[in-house]
Structures are given as structure tokens and as C-alpha cells.
Amino acid sequence: YQQDRREGYPLLYFLSGLTCTEDNFIIKSGMQRFAAKHGFVVINPDTSPRESNHPGEHDEYDFGSAAGFYLNATQQPWSQNYHMYDYIVNEFREVVGANFNVDPERQALSGHSMGGHGALVIGMRNPTLFKCLVAISPISNPCLGKWGIKAFTNYLGPDQNTWKEWDATELARGYTGPTIDILVDQGAEDRFLKDDLMTGNFITAAEGNTALNVDYRLREGYDHFYPYICTFIEEQFDYVAERLNKVQ
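Now predict its structure.
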């Protein structure tokens, strides 16, 4: 990385999942050699606000700390600062652009599990910001999944109509924007697939929408965790690089 290079670097944001910090992907994925291979920067935000000390914030792995769900909470006390959507789309991107030599026109968004949910939702709501999206084992239909129902009830309240704007499957059904390239990578033996991720629901919705160009890779014999991620991270970075380095 050269701060004074004339041309800004292509950039991949990676959003991590439940229980994670910004360090998990950096330490566990082995992605550095593939980022170097393609010449792009990888930047990882945290997964929730920290040390707010709201009642119950640190009690459960799937809600509160490390479980911000990349949305803007509307229910107290979470609405005070659990605005991870605004943080990623506005504040974090602004800080990155002001401090690193990156190209604002060549950026991609990726994530795993809860972070895959974040990548899909943020990407479809902001289709001109990113050249492509990569969702690894994403929470794909949180309005129906156990993790999503718990988080949405607490962050957004009981009106399930308000949940839909944060649900990738619901967004895919109604999406009418410019074409988005999306890679969805899913382990077929993922124990969370049926009740929490519901990746197939998103794939069905996206396949019915010509504006969503989805490459779905179902990995037989693989589960949800980092050995699976490490196995296919090079393929995913190749996919991103093809789009970030494309001559316009």
C-alpha cells in the first residue's frame, strides 16, 4: 500500500457476523495474499457500537454487542446509537476516503452471516456505491428467521412492515434499480441454513428479478465457519477483482 500513489486503490469492505469484531476476518481468513495479488485494499468495520452498556446489551451472542445487524434501530434504548447502517454508508466510508488512498469509483461490499445480510441490504439500498456484492452464508430472510425475528423485534419494534426494508429477500422482490452483480456463497451443510439464514429464499427472489445478476455457489460438504471461508476466499476475491479492475 502506497499512500502517495497517484491512482487510488480499489477497495473491498468486509462486514463480519455475530460475535465478531473487525479483527476476525483480518486474522482468520488468510485474505491478505489475495488482496495483494489483485492490488486492492480491504477494510473491516466493527459489528456494533461498543460499551454503550444498555440493559441486556452484553447478555446474548445474537443481540446487542457484536450483533448490530447493520440497520438503524428505532426502539429505545438502541435507537440512541445502534445506527450501523448509517455508520457504514456515511460515517465510516467518509473516514476511509479522507484517510486512505482509495478510489471512490471502484469499491465493493462483502460480508459473512450477519455481515452477508448487511452487504445485501446496504448494497441493494445503495446500488451506485459498489461495483458488486459478495454475501457468504448470509442471513437472507431475517423477517422469518430466528436470529432476525429476535433482532428486529428489539431494534425495530413489533410492526413487521417496518422490518421489510432491512430484509434482503423482501428488497430483492421489489428492487427496480440498476443491475447489481451479486455473488452468494453458501455451505450446503450449514446448520443455520434452514432456521436462521434461509439463503434459498433470497436466491428465489433474486432469480425472479432481472436487475439482480446473482452467481449462487452452493458448497457441498461445507458448513458456516472459517475453514469454509478460507477454502473459497480466493474465488470470492477473484470475483471482486474482475469487477473492481474492469476498464470502464
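The chain is about 35% helix and 15% strand.
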